[in-house]
Amino acid sequence: MIGYALHSLSHFDVGGIFLTNILLTIRGETMNKLINFLKTTAYVIATILSVCLVVMTMLTALAAQASEPTALELEQARIQWIAEHGQYQPNLTEPAKQEALVFTATKQKELDHEKGKSRN
Question: Is the per-residue pLDDT at 93 higher than 80?
Answer without folding.
Answer: yes
